């Protein structure tokens, strides 16, 4: 078990070095932007609001599921990080990061976990936005490795956990919405559901008296 874990860590380090060597100034500028805090949360959640507005929902189902997914993923991420307490790449490998290095532990990636949680919730409830939001989440996750603040294992595990959280939240919200809709239909009086009976007009024939 110890040898297998060490092999995995060594592969993670090698993948980290290979990714850092890909740095290119124009790409770095884009990925620094993708790694901003407001992209992983507010921007992705805003996509959920857009889906609700497009479908003219009275209750913003997609936005609510995305928000809950983001909050739950962030909360669970903090707990896992505290339990595992893995060092960041600059401390563990001596690599130079682009920008400031967060003071929290490295595993799993909070950006990756929360971004994929929101993206998965939107993907389930608003299929038209599936690929754009998942692509943005993947870009966010890759940016964390590229910038040198997370290992590949951090972002991959974070993405898997986020997908599971967002998918489950979305399914739960969809079932609640379906139950609410069926309950509303059941409360409608039977007369409202039955076809309207139109009175039949029978013409009368009157004699002319001749």
Q: If you had to describe this structure to a student in words, what would you say it looks like?
A:
This protein has a domain of 138 residues: Vanadium-containing Chloroperoxidase, domain 1 (Up-down Bundle). It has 210 residues and is an all-alpha fold. It has nine helices and no strands. Helices cover 71% and strands 0% of the residues. The longest helix has 36 residues. The model has no long low-confidence stretch (mean pLDDT 86).
Give a brief description.
The chain has 210 residues and is mostly helical. The protein contains nine helices and no strands.
Classify the fold: give the CATH topology of the domain at 26-90 and 103-175: Vanadium-containing Chloroperoxidase, domain 1
* Helicity range: over 70%
- Determine and state the CATH class of the domain at 26-90 and 103-175: Mainly Alpha
**Structural class given helices, strands, pairing?**
mainly alpha
Main sheet makeup: none
Figure out the total of helices. 9
- Give me the CATH superfamily of the domain at 26-90 and 103-175: Phosphatidic acid phosphatase type 2/haloperoxidase
Name the beta content range.
Answer: under 5%
Any low-confidence stretches, pLDDT <50, length ≥5?
A: none
> Care to count the β-strands?
0
Give the overall shape, derived from the CA principal axes: elongated
